[in-house]
Design a protein that fits this description.
Blueprint lengths: L2 H16 L3 E3 L5 E3 L1 H5 L4 E2 H6 L45 E5 L5 E5 L13 E2 L2 E3 L2 E3 L2 E2 L9 E6 L3 E6 L13 E2 L2 E3 L2 E3 L2 E2 L2
Antiparallel strand pairs: 1-2, 2-3, 4-5, 6-9, 7-8, 10-11, 12-15, 13-14
Length: 194
């Protein structure tokens, strides 16, 4: 036999020795028995072959040092800081004070009850803080004591005195006129009687 054929046969045999030998175990599962000869743990070949076949890559947990997929938040990641100083936080309501915690989270603490505030309602008076809420216990008096106006209060603008309907009865304070009437919000003298 030539040297070529001997080398060829040896290479085939050596290659076969490196390949895993698979045999069924007692349960019928294919097992790599080559590992048994080396003292290594037996490997369930069927499990290795099918592992990950139906796995969803999106369900895989990132390994340490690996980036987290877009839209995902690592379970142990702290919340992103909202602030470094109080000025980074949204404005606080009238009866609260903005705070920035050591962890960079915005918060609010109530002001003391009874402190003056502005509830942004022009129709209330005596605005003060009560249980972290600003409210005015009183109402603005918009009555101008004129029969020739209809008096209202607008929360944004305050008192509004609208002209009453023309010819609304009024008294101009002159005893020498009768049947006085309103016009453009003013009392106009009526018919002279003296």
């Amino acid at each position: 036999m030539s040297r070529f054929y001997v080398c060829l046969m040896l290479s085939v045999v050596l290659a076969a020795c490196d390949a895993p030998v698979v045999a069924p175990d007692a349960a019928g599962t294919a097992v790599d028995v080559t590992a048994a000869d080396s003292g290594a743990a037996l490997v369930d070949v069927a499990a290795v072959d099918t592992a990950g076949a139906d796995a969803n890559p999106a369900d895989a947990e990132p390994m340490d040092g690996q980036p987290v997929p877009d839209g995902a938040v690592a379970a142990d990641s702290p919340a992103l800081p909202q602030c470094t100083t109080v000025t980074d936080c949204p404005a606080a309501p009238a009866c609260q004070v903005a705070t920035c915690s050591a962890k960079g989270q915005c918060g609010y603490t109530p002001k003391a009850d009874g402190l003056a505030c502005d509830d942004s309602n022009a129709c209330t008076t005596g605005d003060m803080c009560t249980a972290a809420t600003c409210a005015g216990p009183g109402t603005l008096d918009c009555n101008d004591d004129s029969p020739c106006t209809t008096d209202k209060c607008n929360p944004l603008a305050g008192c509004i005195n609208l002209a009453a309907a023309p010819s609304t009865a009024c008294d101009d304070g002159n005893t020498c006129t009768a049947n006085d009437g309103c016009l453009d919000g003013k009392c106009q003298p009526g018919t002279p009687i003296c």
